[in-house]
Design goal:
mainly beta; 209 residues; 42% strand; 5-stranded antiparallel sheet; Gamma-B Crystallin, domain 1; 4-stranded antiparallel sheet; 2 domains; elongated; single chain
């Protein structure tokens, strides 16, 4: 049952380096660049087979639905070009991590079981942020418009559940617990008629890009 809710944006220039642990779907592609490169190109993102940036590596600035097509696992990365969502399983499934521009030497310290097997690049958004959250599935029940972060939907609107949402502008993270904690879901513009399909939890919105 959805008991408490939270919403948050990640601004265009992100200074907070704390990774956040989230499930979603998107297209993908990844480019091989060889083993242990001696230099890092500015504006590219590098994914490594082993912890501490060791083993085979891949360079990309695009989505990848299945990193295991290129290497057996991915346990560290350097993010330089943009923000990414990283996923525990192929095809953008299971536990998610929000990766800002930073170096990540070991995913296990960030809540992942072992490695990242797919990733989705979050495009920059320079306009306004707008979304609607609904108490019930299929856009029914109590509705509230969101244009900024909300650390607890329950406290602000006395809304016990959030079971559907419409994202009009911007990219958002929906958090499982108040104050931007717990599992999260990345949401691009679109309609989401049943959030229970993404997990039986409370979801609180936050702007992400």
């Amino acid at each position: 049952m959805i008991a408490d809710l939270l919403i948050h944006q990640v601004p265009e220039n992100v200074n907070n380096k704390t990774p956040i642990a989230v499930p979603i779907k998107a297209p993908s592609q990844l480019q091989v660049v060889g083993q242990k490169p001696t230099h890092i190109k500015h504006g590219q993102d590098h994914f490594y087979e082993d912890r501490n940036f060791q083993g085979r590596s891949y360079e990309t600035s695009q989505d990848c639905a299945d990193i295991s097509s290129y290497m057996s696992r991915c346990q560290s990365c350097r993010v330089e070009s943009s923000c990414f969502m990283a996923y525990e399983l192929p095809n953008f499934m299971r536990i998610q991590l929000f990766l800002r521009r930073e170096e990540y030497s070991d995913y296990m310290h960030m809540g992942m079981s072992d490695s990242v097997l797919s990733c989705h690049m979050i495009p920059q958004h320079r306009g306004s942020f707008r979304m609607r959250v609904y108490e019930k599935e299929n856009f029914r029940g109590q509705m509230h418009k969101m244009m900024e972060d909300c650390d607890s939907i329950h406290d602000r609107y006395r809304m016990a559940n959030c079971q559907s949402t419409q994202v009009m502008e911007g990219h958002w993270l929906m958090y499982e617990q108040p104050h931007f904690r717990g599992r999260m879901i990345y949401m691009m513009p679109g309609e989401y008629r049943n959030l229970r399909e993404m997990g039986d939890a409370s979801w609180n919105p936050v702007r992400v890009a």
